[in-house]
Protein backbone atom coordinates (compact mmCIF):
# COMPACT_ATOMS: atom_id res chain seq x y z
CA UNK A 1 0.00 0.00 0.00
CA UNK A 2 1.74 3.10 -1.21
CA UNK A 3 -1.00 5.70 -1.27
CA UNK A 4 0.54 9.13 -1.17
CA UNK A 5 0.27 11.29 1.89
CA UNK A 6 2.13 14.41 2.98
CA UNK A 7 3.13 12.78 6.26
CA UNK A 8 4.83 9.91 4.47
CA UNK A 9 7.00 12.36 2.56
CA UNK A 10 7.64 14.83 5.37
CA UNK A 11 10.67 15.09 7.62
CA UNK A 12 9.47 15.97 11.13
CA UNK A 13 11.37 17.86 13.78
CA UNK A 14 10.47 17.70 17.45
CA UNK A 15 10.76 20.91 19.41
CA UNK A 16 10.95 20.76 23.20
CA UNK A 17 10.03 24.41 23.69
CA UNK A 18 11.45 24.83 27.20
CA UNK A 19 14.93 24.12 25.82
CA UNK A 20 14.78 25.44 22.26
CA UNK A 21 15.17 29.23 22.35
CA UNK A 22 14.56 31.85 25.02
CA UNK A 23 13.50 35.26 23.69
CA UNK A 24 13.18 37.28 26.90
CA UNK A 25 16.07 36.28 29.12
CA UNK A 26 14.14 34.43 31.80
CA UNK A 27 16.11 31.26 31.08
CA UNK A 28 13.12 29.35 29.70
CA UNK A 29 12.56 28.71 26.01
CA UNK A 30 9.36 30.19 24.60
CA UNK A 31 7.19 30.61 21.51
CA UNK A 32 8.78 33.87 20.37
CA UNK A 33 12.14 32.18 20.61
CA UNK A 34 10.87 29.39 18.39
CA UNK A 35 9.32 31.82 15.90
CA UNK A 36 12.74 33.46 15.59
CA UNK A 37 14.30 30.13 14.63
CA UNK A 38 11.86 28.97 11.97
CA UNK A 39 14.34 30.07 9.31
CA UNK A 40 16.80 27.59 10.80
CA UNK A 41 14.29 24.77 10.41
CA UNK A 42 13.49 25.75 6.82
CA UNK A 43 17.15 25.80 5.93
CA UNK A 44 17.55 22.32 7.30
CA UNK A 45 14.66 21.18 5.10
CA UNK A 46 12.12 20.41 7.81
CA UNK A 47 8.50 19.94 6.67
CA UNK A 48 6.64 19.64 9.95
CA UNK A 49 7.19 20.46 13.59
CA UNK A 50 5.94 18.40 16.52
CA UNK A 51 5.74 20.78 19.43
CA UNK A 52 5.86 19.29 22.94
CA UNK A 53 3.07 20.69 25.17
CA UNK A 54 2.68 24.46 25.37
CA UNK A 55 -0.60 24.50 27.30
CA UNK A 56 -1.09 26.14 30.67
CA UNK A 57 0.54 23.92 33.26
CA UNK A 58 2.06 24.01 36.74
CA UNK A 59 4.98 22.15 35.16
CA UNK A 60 5.30 19.23 37.48
CA UNK A 61 6.21 17.26 34.32
CA UNK A 62 7.19 20.16 32.03
CA UNK A 63 3.81 20.67 30.45
CA UNK A 64 2.70 17.03 30.30
CA UNK A 65 0.50 17.99 33.26
CA UNK A 66 -2.09 20.27 31.70
CA UNK A 67 -4.13 22.71 33.75
CA UNK A 68 -6.00 24.38 30.91
CA UNK A 69 -6.12 22.90 27.41
CA UNK A 70 -7.20 26.17 25.84
CA UNK A 71 -4.54 28.45 27.24
CA UNK A 72 -0.83 28.89 26.52
CA UNK A 73 1.64 28.36 29.38
CA UNK A 74 2.50 31.86 30.58
CA UNK A 75 6.25 31.12 30.54
CA UNK A 76 5.95 30.26 26.84
CA UNK A 77 3.89 33.28 25.80
CA UNK A 78 0.31 34.12 24.96
CA UNK A 79 -2.24 32.86 22.44
CA UNK A 80 -1.27 35.62 19.96
CA UNK A 81 2.27 34.21 19.94
CA UNK A 82 0.87 30.78 19.22
CA UNK A 83 -1.29 32.10 16.38
CA UNK A 84 1.72 33.83 14.92
CA UNK A 85 3.81 30.68 15.22
CA UNK A 86 1.19 28.73 13.32
CA UNK A 87 0.82 31.26 10.56
CA UNK A 88 4.59 31.72 10.24
CA UNK A 89 5.04 27.97 9.93
CA UNK A 90 2.34 27.78 7.28
CA UNK A 91 3.79 30.73 5.42
CA UNK A 92 7.05 28.79 5.14
CA UNK A 93 5.24 25.67 3.95
CA UNK A 94 5.70 23.79 7.22
CA UNK A 95 3.03 22.04 9.26
CA UNK A 96 2.40 21.92 12.98
CA UNK A 97 1.61 18.96 15.23
CA UNK A 98 0.48 19.71 18.74
CA UNK A 99 1.05 17.34 21.63
CA UNK A 100 -2.23 15.93 22.89
CA UNK A 101 -2.03 14.75 26.49
CA UNK A 102 -5.37 13.19 27.34
CA UNK A 103 -4.56 10.11 29.40
CA UNK A 104 -4.35 12.47 32.36
CA UNK A 105 -4.60 16.12 33.37
CA UNK A 106 -2.93 18.15 36.08
CA UNK A 107 -4.51 17.94 39.52
CA UNK A 108 -4.89 21.71 39.10
CA UNK A 109 -7.20 21.27 36.11
CA UNK A 110 -10.66 22.62 36.77
CA UNK A 111 -12.19 19.16 36.15
CA UNK A 112 -10.12 17.63 38.93
CA UNK A 113 -10.77 20.47 41.34
CA UNK A 114 -14.49 20.05 40.71
CA UNK A 115 -14.26 16.28 41.06
CA UNK A 116 -12.73 16.77 44.48
CA UNK A 117 -15.03 19.59 45.55
CA UNK A 118 -18.26 17.90 44.55
CA UNK A 119 -18.05 14.13 44.08
CA UNK A 120 -21.75 14.02 43.18
CA UNK A 121 -21.46 16.83 40.62
CA UNK A 122 -20.87 16.80 36.85
CA UNK A 123 -17.16 16.14 37.20
CA UNK A 124 -17.34 13.63 40.06
CA UNK A 125 -16.69 10.75 37.68
CA UNK A 126 -14.08 12.39 35.42
CA UNK A 127 -11.15 10.57 37.03
CA UNK A 128 -10.51 7.10 38.38
CA UNK A 129 -11.22 6.96 42.11
CA UNK A 130 -11.16 3.86 44.31
CA UNK A 131 -11.64 3.05 48.00
CA UNK A 132 -8.41 1.13 48.08
CA UNK A 133 -5.43 1.06 45.75
CA UNK A 134 -4.44 -1.92 43.62
CA UNK A 135 -0.77 -2.83 43.13
CA UNK A 136 -0.13 -0.69 40.04
CA UNK A 137 2.96 1.48 40.22
CA UNK A 138 3.70 4.89 38.79
CA UNK A 139 6.26 5.37 36.00
CA UNK A 140 7.96 7.93 38.17
CA UNK A 141 8.35 5.62 41.19
CA UNK A 142 6.09 4.43 44.00
CA UNK A 143 2.40 3.54 43.98
CA UNK A 144 0.13 4.78 41.20
CA UNK A 145 -2.45 5.89 43.78
CA UNK A 146 -2.72 9.13 45.67
CA UNK A 147 -5.00 9.53 48.65
CA UNK A 148 -7.43 12.40 48.20
CA UNK A 149 -8.35 13.55 51.66
CA UNK A 150 -11.54 15.41 50.65
CA UNK A 151 -13.03 12.35 48.97
CA UNK A 152 -11.58 9.79 51.33
CA UNK A 153 -10.61 7.94 48.16
CA UNK A 154 -7.54 7.19 46.08
CA UNK A 155 -7.03 8.67 42.61
CA UNK A 156 -5.08 6.81 39.91
CA UNK A 157 -1.97 8.48 38.49
CA UNK A 158 0.19 6.40 36.18
CA UNK A 159 2.68 9.25 36.05
CA UNK A 160 3.39 11.91 38.70
CA UNK A 161 1.13 12.55 41.69
CA UNK A 162 -0.01 15.69 39.94
CA UNK A 163 -0.99 13.89 36.70
CA UNK A 164 -4.32 12.24 37.40
CA UNK A 165 -5.68 9.65 34.95
CA UNK A 166 -8.91 10.60 33.23
CA UNK A 167 -11.84 8.19 33.21
CA UNK A 168 -12.41 7.50 29.51
CA UNK A 169 -15.39 5.28 30.37
CA UNK A 170 -17.27 8.48 31.03
CA UNK A 171 -18.77 9.71 27.75
CA UNK A 172 -18.67 13.35 28.90
CA UNK A 173 -14.91 13.09 29.32
CA UNK A 174 -14.63 11.87 25.74
CA UNK A 175 -16.95 14.58 24.43
CA UNK A 176 -15.02 17.30 26.23
CA UNK A 177 -11.79 15.98 24.76
CA UNK A 178 -13.23 15.88 21.23
CA UNK A 179 -14.48 19.37 21.67
CA UNK A 180 -11.10 20.63 22.76
CA UNK A 181 -9.38 18.88 19.85
CA UNK A 182 -11.78 20.50 17.38
CA UNK A 183 -11.08 23.86 18.97
CA UNK A 184 -7.38 23.54 18.07
CA UNK A 185 -8.12 22.15 14.63
CA UNK A 186 -10.33 25.15 13.88
CA UNK A 187 -7.27 27.28 14.50
CA UNK A 188 -5.59 25.36 11.71
CA UNK A 189 -3.16 23.00 13.44
CA UNK A 190 -2.32 20.09 11.17
CA UNK A 191 -2.39 17.21 13.57
CA UNK A 192 -1.39 15.75 16.91
CA UNK A 193 1.10 13.50 18.61
CA UNK A 194 -1.00 11.58 21.11
CA UNK A 195 0.74 11.14 24.47
CA UNK A 196 0.66 7.56 25.90
CA UNK A 197 -2.55 7.11 23.96
CA UNK A 198 -2.52 3.31 24.32
CA UNK A 199 -2.96 3.65 28.10
CA UNK A 200 -6.38 5.37 28.04
CA UNK A 201 -8.65 2.34 28.43
CA UNK A 202 -8.38 0.64 31.82
CA UNK A 203 -10.03 -2.77 32.34
CA UNK A 204 -13.13 -3.11 34.50
CA UNK A 205 -12.39 -3.62 38.17
CA UNK A 206 -8.76 -2.53 37.76
CA UNK A 207 -7.29 -5.95 38.54
CA UNK A 208 -3.85 -6.21 40.16
CA UNK A 209 -0.93 -6.54 37.78
CA UNK A 210 1.42 -9.51 37.71
CA UNK A 211 4.31 -9.10 40.16
CA UNK A 212 6.52 -11.13 37.85
CA UNK A 213 5.96 -8.80 34.91
CA UNK A 214 6.34 -5.89 37.33
CA UNK A 215 9.80 -7.09 38.36
CA UNK A 216 10.81 -7.65 34.77
CA UNK A 217 9.63 -4.29 33.48
CA UNK A 218 10.16 -2.17 36.55
CA UNK A 219 6.45 -1.18 36.49
CA UNK A 220 3.53 -3.13 37.89
CA UNK A 221 0.13 -3.18 36.16
CA UNK A 222 1.17 -2.21 32.63
CA UNK A 223 -0.08 -5.46 31.01
CA UNK A 224 -3.57 -4.62 32.26
CA UNK A 225 -3.95 -1.28 30.51
CA UNK A 226 -1.34 -0.90 27.75
CA UNK A 227 -3.87 -2.19 25.23
CA UNK A 228 -7.10 -1.82 27.17
CA UNK A 229 -10.43 -3.34 26.09
CA UNK A 230 -11.88 -0.15 24.58
CA UNK A 231 -8.72 1.41 23.17
CA UNK A 232 -9.65 0.77 19.54
CA UNK A 233 -13.20 2.05 20.04
CA UNK A 234 -12.07 5.23 21.72
CA UNK A 235 -9.57 5.95 18.96
CA UNK A 236 -12.15 5.43 16.24
CA UNK A 237 -14.59 7.67 17.99
CA UNK A 238 -12.05 10.44 18.43
CA UNK A 239 -10.97 10.16 14.83
CA UNK A 240 -14.52 10.24 13.53
CA UNK A 241 -15.62 13.14 15.74
CA UNK A 242 -12.52 15.29 15.74
CA UNK A 243 -9.59 14.44 13.45
CA UNK A 244 -11.32 13.24 10.32
CA UNK A 245 -13.54 16.27 9.64
CA UNK A 246 -10.38 18.38 9.56
CA UNK A 247 -8.15 15.94 7.73
CA UNK A 248 -5.82 16.04 10.71
CA UNK A 249 -2.82 13.72 11.00
CA UNK A 250 -2.21 11.64 14.12
CA UNK A 251 0.80 9.82 15.46
CA UNK A 252 0.35 7.88 18.66
CA UNK A 253 2.93 7.49 21.38
CA UNK A 254 2.32 3.82 22.08
CA UNK A 255 4.94 2.30 24.37
CA UNK A 256 5.20 -1.47 24.43
CA UNK A 257 2.57 -2.41 21.85
CA UNK A 258 4.64 -4.53 19.42
CA UNK A 259 4.10 -5.07 15.69
CA UNK A 260 0.74 -6.80 15.70
CA UNK A 261 -0.97 -4.25 17.92
CA UNK A 262 0.69 -1.44 15.99
CA UNK A 263 -0.93 -2.83 12.85
CA UNK A 264 -4.32 -2.78 14.51
CA UNK A 265 -3.79 0.80 15.59
CA UNK A 266 -2.49 2.16 12.30
CA UNK A 267 -3.81 0.06 9.41
CA UNK A 268 -5.42 2.58 7.08
CA UNK A 269 -8.77 0.91 6.69
CA UNK A 270 -9.31 0.65 10.47
CA UNK A 271 -9.46 4.42 10.83
CA UNK A 272 -7.73 4.75 14.16
CA UNK A 273 -4.26 6.36 14.06
CA UNK A 274 -2.19 7.30 11.01
CA UNK A 275 1.08 6.33 12.57
CA UNK A 276 2.57 5.27 15.90
CA UNK A 277 5.87 5.33 17.76
CA UNK A 278 7.26 1.98 18.82
CA UNK A 279 10.01 2.17 21.42
CA UNK A 280 11.27 -1.38 21.30
CA UNK A 281 14.46 -0.36 19.53
CA UNK A 282 15.57 2.24 22.04
CA UNK A 283 17.18 -0.29 24.37
CA UNK A 284 18.90 -3.58 23.64
CA UNK A 285 16.92 -6.63 24.76
CA UNK A 286 17.50 -7.33 28.44
CA UNK A 287 18.35 -3.72 29.23
CA UNK A 288 16.34 -0.82 30.54
CA UNK A 289 16.96 2.87 30.01
CA UNK A 290 18.63 3.17 33.41
CA UNK A 291 21.24 0.49 32.76
CA UNK A 292 24.80 1.52 32.06
CA UNK A 293 25.71 -0.37 28.92
CA UNK A 294 26.80 0.20 25.35
CA UNK A 295 23.93 0.06 22.86
CA UNK A 296 24.55 -2.38 20.01
CA UNK A 297 23.25 -1.04 16.68
CA UNK A 298 22.74 -4.58 15.39
CA UNK A 299 19.58 -4.56 17.48
CA UNK A 300 18.35 -1.56 15.58
CA UNK A 301 19.07 -3.41 12.35
CA UNK A 302 17.03 -6.45 13.38
CA UNK A 303 14.20 -4.37 14.83
CA UNK A 304 13.81 -2.20 11.79
CA UNK A 305 14.27 -5.05 9.32
CA UNK A 306 11.50 -6.99 10.99
CA UNK A 307 9.19 -3.99 10.96
CA UNK A 308 9.98 -3.17 7.33
CA UNK A 309 9.07 -6.69 6.35
CA UNK A 310 6.03 -7.31 8.47
CA UNK A 311 4.59 -3.88 8.92
CA UNK A 312 5.33 -1.40 6.22
CA UNK A 313 3.29 -2.77 3.31
CA UNK A 314 0.17 -1.83 5.26
CA UNK A 315 1.38 0.85 7.60
CA UNK A 316 3.92 3.65 7.71
CA UNK A 317 6.83 3.31 10.14
CA UNK A 318 8.12 6.20 12.21
CA UNK A 319 11.90 6.43 12.24
CA UNK A 320 13.57 7.95 15.29
CA UNK A 321 16.26 7.42 17.89
CA UNK A 322 15.70 10.34 20.19
CA UNK A 323 13.01 12.39 21.89
CA UNK A 324 12.60 14.34 25.12
CA UNK A 325 12.24 11.11 27.13
CA UNK A 326 15.48 9.41 26.22
CA UNK A 327 19.23 9.92 26.45
CA UNK A 328 21.07 10.90 23.28
CA UNK A 329 21.70 8.05 20.85
CA UNK A 330 25.33 8.92 20.13
CA UNK A 331 26.04 8.64 23.87
CA UNK A 332 24.28 5.31 24.12
CA UNK A 333 26.17 3.77 21.23
CA UNK A 334 29.64 5.19 21.71
CA UNK A 335 30.06 7.18 24.87
CA UNK A 336 33.74 8.02 24.54
CA UNK A 337 33.08 10.55 21.79
CA UNK A 338 36.04 9.75 19.52
CA UNK A 339 33.79 8.85 16.61
CA UNK A 340 30.98 11.24 17.51
CA UNK A 341 30.55 12.95 14.15
CA UNK A 342 31.08 9.84 12.03
CA UNK A 343 28.54 7.97 14.14
CA UNK A 344 26.12 10.89 14.00
CA UNK A 345 26.29 10.69 10.21
CA UNK A 346 25.69 6.93 10.21
CA UNK A 347 22.54 7.49 12.27
CA UNK A 348 21.44 10.19 9.84
CA UNK A 349 21.93 7.90 6.83
CA UNK A 350 19.75 5.17 8.27
CA UNK A 351 17.04 7.52 9.49
CA UNK A 352 16.72 9.28 6.16
CA UNK A 353 16.93 6.30 3.83
CA UNK A 354 15.00 3.53 5.58
CA UNK A 355 11.32 3.12 4.77
CA UNK A 356 9.27 5.34 7.03
CA UNK A 357 8.81 8.88 8.28
CA UNK A 358 11.78 10.42 10.08
CA UNK A 359 11.38 12.38 13.31
CA UNK A 360 14.50 14.34 14.25
CA UNK A 361 14.73 15.55 17.84
CA UNK A 362 16.13 19.04 18.39
CA UNK A 363 19.91 19.01 18.66
CA UNK A 364 20.24 15.60 17.05
CA UNK A 365 21.18 17.33 13.79
CA UNK A 366 24.25 18.84 15.46
CA UNK A 367 25.15 15.69 17.38
CA UNK A 368 24.29 16.83 20.89
CA UNK A 369 25.26 14.27 23.56
CA UNK A 370 24.33 13.42 27.15
CA UNK A 371 25.31 15.91 29.80
CA UNK A 372 27.74 14.82 32.45
CA UNK A 373 25.54 15.91 35.35
CA UNK A 374 27.66 15.99 38.51
CA UNK A 375 25.04 15.69 41.24
CA UNK A 376 21.31 15.18 41.74
CA UNK A 377 20.89 18.93 42.28
CA UNK A 378 21.65 19.49 38.61
CA UNK A 379 18.65 17.45 37.46
CA UNK A 380 15.19 18.92 36.95
CA UNK A 381 13.04 16.00 35.83
CA UNK A 382 10.37 14.61 38.16
CA UNK A 383 11.11 11.11 36.86
CA UNK A 384 14.83 11.38 37.64
CA UNK A 385 14.10 12.21 41.29
CA UNK A 386 11.43 9.52 41.63
CA UNK A 387 13.62 6.84 40.09
CA UNK A 388 16.67 7.94 42.11
CA UNK A 389 14.76 7.33 45.34
CA UNK A 390 13.56 3.97 44.08
CA UNK A 391 17.08 2.83 43.09
CA UNK A 392 18.75 4.32 46.17
CA UNK A 393 16.69 2.18 48.51
CA UNK A 394 17.92 -1.05 46.94
CA UNK A 395 21.24 -0.22 45.37
CA UNK A 396 22.67 2.65 47.35
CA UNK A 397 23.31 6.24 46.48
CA UNK A 398 26.32 5.88 44.22
CA UNK A 399 24.85 3.21 41.96
CA UNK A 400 21.51 5.02 41.91
CA UNK A 401 23.21 8.20 40.73
CA UNK A 402 25.06 6.39 37.96
CA UNK A 403 21.82 4.84 36.74
CA UNK A 404 20.08 8.23 36.65
CA UNK A 405 23.06 9.66 34.81
CA UNK A 406 22.72 6.96 32.14
CA UNK A 407 18.95 7.12 31.74
CA UNK A 408 17.75 10.55 32.78
CA UNK A 409 15.40 12.31 30.42
CA UNK A 410 17.26 15.52 31.27
CA UNK A 411 20.07 14.30 29.02
CA UNK A 412 17.85 15.26 26.09
CA UNK A 413 16.44 18.39 27.71
CA UNK A 414 19.49 20.61 28.03
CA UNK A 415 19.32 23.79 25.96
CA UNK A 416 19.74 23.73 22.21
CA UNK A 417 23.32 24.66 21.36
CA UNK A 418 23.02 27.54 18.90
CA UNK A 419 26.48 29.09 19.09
CA UNK A 420 29.61 29.53 21.19
CA UNK A 421 28.09 32.50 23.01
CA UNK A 422 27.35 32.22 26.71
CA UNK A 423 24.78 29.47 27.33
CA UNK A 424 25.15 28.42 23.73
CA UNK A 425 23.10 31.41 22.59
CA UNK A 426 19.99 29.85 24.12
CA UNK A 427 19.36 32.57 26.68
CA UNK A 428 20.77 35.86 27.90
CA UNK A 429 19.69 34.91 31.41
CA UNK A 430 20.31 31.88 33.56
CA UNK A 431 19.13 28.71 31.80
CA UNK A 432 16.58 26.60 33.69
CA UNK A 433 18.89 23.60 33.29
CA UNK A 434 22.63 23.46 32.67
CA UNK A 435 24.02 23.76 29.15
CA UNK A 436 26.14 21.28 27.20
CA UNK A 437 29.48 21.30 25.35
CA UNK A 438 28.81 24.41 23.27
CA UNK A 439 32.48 24.95 22.39
CA UNK A 440 32.68 21.79 20.31
CA UNK A 441 29.07 21.44 19.27
CA UNK A 442 26.90 24.29 18.10
CA UNK A 443 24.64 25.07 15.17
CA UNK A 444 26.39 28.24 14.03
CA UNK A 445 29.78 26.59 13.52
CA UNK A 446 28.25 23.58 11.83
CA UNK A 447 26.12 25.60 9.46
CA UNK A 448 29.27 27.30 8.23
CA UNK A 449 31.06 24.01 7.61
CA UNK A 450 30.04 21.94 4.61
CA UNK A 451 31.45 18.77 6.17
CA UNK A 452 29.62 19.11 9.47
CA UNK A 453 26.93 16.84 10.78
CA UNK A 454 24.37 19.63 10.34
CA UNK A 455 25.28 20.01 6.66
CA UNK A 456 25.11 16.25 6.26
CA UNK A 457 21.56 16.20 7.63
CA UNK A 458 20.57 19.04 5.32
CA UNK A 459 22.07 17.24 2.31
CA UNK A 460 20.42 13.93 3.16
CA UNK A 461 17.04 15.57 3.67
CA UNK A 462 17.34 17.11 0.24
CA UNK A 463 18.47 13.78 -1.26
CA UNK A 464 15.39 12.18 0.26
CA UNK A 465 13.24 14.79 -1.46
CA UNK A 466 14.93 14.30 -4.82
CA UNK A 467 14.51 10.52 -4.75
CA UNK A 468 10.94 9.31 -4.31
CA UNK A 469 12.27 5.74 -4.10
CA UNK A 470 13.46 6.67 -0.61
CA UNK A 471 9.89 7.44 0.38
CA UNK A 472 7.65 5.12 -1.61
CA UNK A 473 10.10 2.63 -3.04
CA UNK A 474 10.47 -0.97 -1.90
CA UNK A 475 13.12 -1.92 0.58
CA UNK A 476 15.27 -5.00 0.24
CA UNK A 477 17.69 -5.78 3.05
CA UNK A 478 20.67 -7.94 2.14
CA UNK A 479 23.25 -9.57 4.42
CA UNK A 480 20.54 -10.00 7.01
CA UNK A 481 22.53 -12.41 9.13
CA UNK A 482 25.89 -10.66 8.84
CA UNK A 483 26.69 -8.97 12.08
CA UNK A 484 27.76 -5.30 11.91
CA UNK A 485 26.79 -4.93 8.25
CA UNK A 486 23.58 -3.24 7.26
CA UNK A 487 22.99 -3.09 3.52
CA UNK A 488 19.77 -2.42 1.68
CA UNK A 489 18.30 -1.34 -1.62
CA UNK A 490 15.50 1.15 -2.12
CA UNK A 491 13.88 0.95 -5.51
CA UNK A 492 10.96 2.03 -7.61
CA UNK A 493 10.28 1.88 -11.35
CA UNK A 494 12.76 4.56 -12.19
CA UNK A 495 15.69 4.22 -9.78
CA UNK A 496 17.58 2.02 -7.34
CA UNK A 497 19.53 3.28 -4.37
CA UNK A 498 21.98 1.21 -2.35
CA UNK A 499 22.81 1.95 1.25
CA UNK A 500 25.81 0.40 2.95
CA UNK A 501 26.54 0.77 6.67
CA UNK A 502 29.13 -0.54 9.10
CA UNK A 503 27.39 -0.70 12.47
CA UNK A 504 30.58 -1.29 14.44
CA UNK A 505 33.39 0.95 15.60
CA UNK A 506 35.96 -1.34 13.96
CA UNK A 507 37.01 -1.54 10.33
CA UNK A 508 35.49 -4.61 8.68
CA UNK A 509 35.63 -6.52 5.41
CA UNK A 510 33.06 -5.57 2.83
CA UNK A 511 30.87 -8.59 2.08
CA UNK A 512 29.24 -7.31 -1.06
CA UNK A 513 27.47 -6.34 -3.08
CA UNK A 514 30.23 -3.95 -4.09
CA UNK A 515 28.56 -0.62 -4.57
CA UNK A 516 28.54 0.86 -8.04
CA UNK A 517 27.11 3.89 -9.71
CA UNK A 518 27.23 7.31 -8.14
CA UNK A 519 27.89 7.96 -4.44
CA UNK A 520 25.36 10.51 -3.20
CA UNK A 521 26.48 10.81 0.42
CA UNK A 522 28.99 9.31 2.81
CA UNK A 523 30.65 9.96 6.15
CA UNK A 524 34.09 9.25 4.64
CA UNK A 525 35.81 11.17 1.87
CA UNK A 526 36.78 8.52 -0.62
CA UNK A 527 35.35 5.11 -1.22
CA UNK A 528 37.59 2.35 0.15
CA UNK A 529 38.03 -1.39 -0.07
CA UNK A 530 37.19 -2.15 3.54
CA UNK A 531 34.43 -0.53 5.52
CA UNK A 532 35.81 1.91 8.06
CA UNK A 533 34.35 2.43 11.55
CA UNK A 534 30.67 3.40 11.32
CA UNK A 535 31.05 4.00 7.59
CA UNK A 536 27.75 4.78 5.89
CA UNK A 537 27.16 5.60 2.24
CA UNK A 538 24.26 6.15 -0.09
CA UNK A 539 24.70 5.13 -3.74
CA UNK A 540 22.47 5.44 -6.73
CA UNK A 541 22.99 2.34 -8.79
CA UNK A 542 20.26 2.74 -11.40
CA UNK A 543 18.69 5.97 -12.61
CA UNK A 544 16.69 7.07 -15.59
O1 LIG B 1 6.66 3.26 29.51
C1 LIG B 1 7.54 4.00 29.81
C2 LIG B 1 8.59 3.59 30.73
O2 LIG B 1 9.86 3.45 30.12
C3 LIG B 1 7.71 5.32 29.22
O3 LIG B 1 8.03 5.12 27.88
C4 LIG B 1 6.47 6.17 29.29
O4 LIG B 1 5.37 5.52 28.85
C5 LIG B 1 6.67 7.35 28.49
O5 LIG B 1 7.74 8.01 29.06
C6 LIG B 1 5.45 8.26 28.41
O6 LIG B 1 5.87 9.50 27.96
C7 LIG B 1 4.96 10.53 27.74
O7 LIG B 1 4.04 10.72 28.79
C8 LIG B 1 4.56 11.13 30.03
C9 LIG B 1 5.56 12.28 29.91
O8 LIG B 1 6.24 12.42 31.12
C10 LIG B 1 6.53 12.08 28.79
O9 LIG B 1 7.37 13.19 28.66
C11 LIG B 1 5.73 11.82 27.56
O10 LIG B 1 6.49 11.75 26.39
C12 LIG B 1 3.39 11.54 30.87
O11 LIG B 1 2.63 12.48 30.19
CA1 LIG C 1 11.60 32.89 27.96
TrEMBL record:
Any Pfam family matching the protein: Alpha-amylase
Keyword entries, A-Z: Glycosidase, Hydrolase
Residues annotated as domain Glycosyl hydrolase family 13 catalytic: 14-413
CDD domains reported in the protein's UniProt record: AmyAc_SI_OligoGlu_DGase (cd11333)
A GO molecular function held by the record: alpha-amylase activity
InterPro entries: GH, GH13_cat_dom, Glyco_hydro_b, O16G_dom_2
Keyword ATP-binding: no
GO BP annotations listed: oligosaccharide catabolic process
Source domain of life: Bacteria
Family, per entry: Belongs to the glycosyl hydrolase 13 family.
UniProt-recorded name of the protein: Alpha-amylase
Lineage, opening ranks: Bacteria, Bacillati, Bacillota, Clostridia, Eubacteriales
Amino acid sequence: NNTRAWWKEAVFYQVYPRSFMDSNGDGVGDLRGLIGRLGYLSELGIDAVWLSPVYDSPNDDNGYDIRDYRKIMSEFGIMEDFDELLSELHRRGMRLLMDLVVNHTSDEHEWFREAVRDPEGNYGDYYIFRDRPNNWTSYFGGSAWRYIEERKEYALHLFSEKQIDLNWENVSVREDISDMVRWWLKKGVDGFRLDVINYISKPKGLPDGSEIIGKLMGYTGVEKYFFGPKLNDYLRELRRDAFEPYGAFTVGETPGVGIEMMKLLTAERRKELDMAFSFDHLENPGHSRFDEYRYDLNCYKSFITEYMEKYSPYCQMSLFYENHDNPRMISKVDGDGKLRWILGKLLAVMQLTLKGTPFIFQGQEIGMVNKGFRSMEEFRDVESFGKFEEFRKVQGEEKAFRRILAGSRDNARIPMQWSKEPNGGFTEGIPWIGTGDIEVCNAEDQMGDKDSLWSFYRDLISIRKDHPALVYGDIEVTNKDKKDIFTYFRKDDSETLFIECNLSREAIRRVGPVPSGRRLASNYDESNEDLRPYEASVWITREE
